[in-house]
Design goal:
Helix content is 18%, strand content 34%. With 257 residues, the protein is an alpha+beta fold. The chain folds into two domains: 65 residues; 172 residues, Jelly Rolls, CATH 2.60.120.260. The longest helix has 41 residues.
């Protein structure tokens, strides 16, 4: 056995070094302990690596899942689904409305009408390889197959569109067509709004929730009448698309007097 202290080769089974007198049994025990320690450290490191991989996989799966938003009936904003039609695969069947958006609506003995929007603006606009127009005026063009799409990286939290009226009006309701509904692929590939912040020129705001799997108009009844000359709609949360991270809104109608 070779002495680690002086390097002298000793007979097998020797307890002490014949040259320097070092305890060879102690060296042997220390070598065995070092080996056991290395094995324990290797096992601990392997367990830590496995835990990190498992946690990363869990977060990845959670990120890929669509946000599940439940409509809270206690909110001031009460959502009414006018239709809940699934869009057909590979084609879109235009929804037949029984009433025009321009028709007067009577609520609490007060006739509401669609308010005149004279201008619009947005914090960002999507630019893609197809060179399609995703400007904010697409939400008021009366065509549910066109959309405003935000143009920032990620789902567009905090991005908004602003619709300006011809004067100060009392706003009571909003009707929104959510998502890109020109086809099955368009609707589920892209993000849809789950909750939206509605802000007014008087400085007030409120949050409304929209349902998913709904390609018709969804009506948002405001908890109170608001006198304002514009409304701003800000993306608060989304239902995730399975391919693209762009959030789309097809149509917005503002009702009041």
């Amino acid at each position: 056995m070779k002495c680690k202290n002086c390097g002298n080769e000793n007979n097998e089974g020797a307890k002490y070094c014949s040259k320097c007198g070092e305890n060879l049994e102690f060296q042997k025990d220390k070598k065995s302990s070092d080996k056991k320690l290395m094995i324990i450290l290797s096992v601990i490191i392997a367990i830590i690596i496995i835990l990190i991989l498992v946690i990363a996989l869990i977060f990845k799966n959670l990120k890929n899942q669509s946000l599940n938003v439940t409509i809270n009936n206690n909110d001031l904003n009460k959502i009414t689904q006018e239709s809940k039609n699934k869009v057909e695969s590979n084609e879109y069947k235009e929804e037949q409305n029984n009433e025009s958006n321009n028709d007067d609506v009577t609520t609490n003995n007060i006739k509401m009408r669609e308010l005149n929007i004279v201008d619009e603006d947005s914090t960002s606009i999507l630019t893609d390889s197809f060179k399609k127009d995703y400007g904010p005026y697409k939400v008021i063009d009366g065509d549910k197959t066109t959309v405003w799409a935000e143009g920032v990286d990620g789902p567009g939290y905090g991005e908004s569109i602003t619709l300006y009226f011809d004067s100060v009006h009392t706003v009571k309701q909003l009707k929104i067509v959510n998502g890109l509904i020109n086809s099955y692929d368009g609707y589920y590939k892209n993000n849809r709004v789950a909750s939206i912040k509605i802000s007014f020129s008087d400085g007030s705001s409120q949050i409304a929730h929209l349902s998913d799997d709904n390609t018709g108009y969804q009506t948002i009844d405001l908890g109170r009448s608001v006198d304002t000359d514009y409304i701003t709609l800000t993306i608060d949360s989304v239902y995730s698309g399975y391919k693209y991270d762009d959030t789309c809104i097809a149509e917005v109608v503002v009702l009041g007097y």
